[in-house]
Specification:
Length: 102
């Protein structure tokens, strides 16, 4: 029996400066996310900062594995969408390998 493959995760924190332009980013990024099997685990919503600083928006996107998470970010079509995001929001993104579920 093979070991489960850990998911790849994008963890992002951001402050949206231009909501209309950010909508353009989401529209441009959506087909890329779909191609790589992305599933949003958190996308804004309620939050409470309990330690350290916090931005206004928190996003967790799960991919089938770490390599797909990286590939999605580096995909030229996503990079075009990212250029839109950079004009609309201040963000930090980290891509991490999740814990294999047993």
């Amino acid at each position: 029996m093979s070991e489960p493959t850990p998911a790849g995760l994008w963890i992002a924190h951001g402050t949206i400066k231009d909501h209309e332009r950010y909508g353009d980013y989401l529209a441009a990024a959506a087909p890329v996310f779909a191609r790589y099997g992305a599933v949003f685990q958190a996308r804004g919503g309620r939050y409470e900062p309990v330690e350290g600083l916090a931005r206004e928006r928190h996003i967790i996107i799960q991919f089938p594995n770490y390599d797909l998470a990286l590939a999605c970010y580096h995909d030229p079509e996503y990079q075009e969408a990212a250029r839109i995001r950079l004009t609309a929001a201040e963000t930090e993104i980290v891509i991490v390998e999740g814990v294999a579920q047993t």
